[in-house]
Amino acid sequence: MTRKRFFGTAFYYAAAILLALIALVPFAWMISTSFKSRGALMSIPIEWIPEEPTLDAYFTVFERFPFLRAIGNSLLIAVCYTLLTLVSASMAAFAFTKIQFKGSGFLLGLYLATMMIPTQVTMIPLFVVMNQIGLINHYSSVILPAIFRPFAVFLLVQQMRPIPPDYMDAARIDGAGVWRIWRQVMLPLCAPSLATLAVTNFMDSWNDYLWPLLMLTDKAKMTLPIALSTLNGQYDTEYNVMMAGSLISMIPIILIYIFAQKYFKHGLMAGGVKG
């Protein structure tokens, strides 16, 4: 290795480590703050390691709001939302790529073009529809929009399109129909992209604030982001309580990402390089 290349590589890794440390500073402050008492929040200099760590902020989180119920609501909605997205998007991608019908290319382009429409534009019409069919303050009003996820279809189309038709021909010879081919052939071959979509859609649903706030008016049905917003006082904010609640809300996302990390990486690569 030449000296120039050595210094270039060293600079690259040093810059990467520095940027990673900078990105971790807010997270470290969040963890530190969650274990502080209220009196230690504004101490100068900042106590990165609390002198008197306490769990009072975590107990306060569960005392002020039915936090376990909010976690259960978010978990139910996020799981159903993710499963519905995977099923509907994989079916649509399978139809667009493996079932020949007139106008499929135009219809796919029109469908994907809806990604350019901001979500805020469709909120009022969608709210009116949900109100007309009587789904306000019902979990299904938050879950049903998962049927229409253009980016999920786009990602799976990139994964399914290069799959040779020989797999489908072999399945047909064995007597498999369209549904069985989709379920037993295409879905296993698209596992990396499906894992990627599962992580990203679960995260989107778990962190969604505005749409559940519009749809769910009952306190017993409120999701975790709405519960976190109640911890922010009108005149005063207890940052240790806010950080404790935020850390609790991050645990499911971290666990899911760790579990699906291998598939997540392969899914992003597959969705990005296929034409």
Describe this structure in words.
The chain is mainly α. The protein folds into two domains: 54 residues; 209 residues, MetI-like fold, CATH 1.10.3720.10. The protein has 14 helices and no strands. α1 packs across α13 and α3 crosses α7. It is globular.
In short:
The chain is mainly α and 275 residues long.
**Uncertain segments:** 271-275
Which strand-content bin applies to the residues? Answer: under 5%
| Architecture (CATH level 2) name of the largest domain | Orthogonal Bundle
Secondary structure: helix percent: over 70%
Q: For the residues shown, what is the average pLDDT?
A: 82
Distance from N terminus to C terminus (CA atoms, Å) equals: 36 Å
Helix-strand category: mainly alpha
| Number of helical regions | 14
Report the radius of gyration as a whole number of Å.
Answer: 24 Å
Number of strands: 0
Summarize the main sheet: none
Domains counted in the coordinates: how many? 2
| Fourth CATH level, the homologous superfamily of the largest domain | MetI-like
Shape: globular
CATH class of the largest domain: Mainly Alpha
Order of helices and strands: HHHHHHHHHHHHHH
CATH topology of the largest domain: MetI-like fold
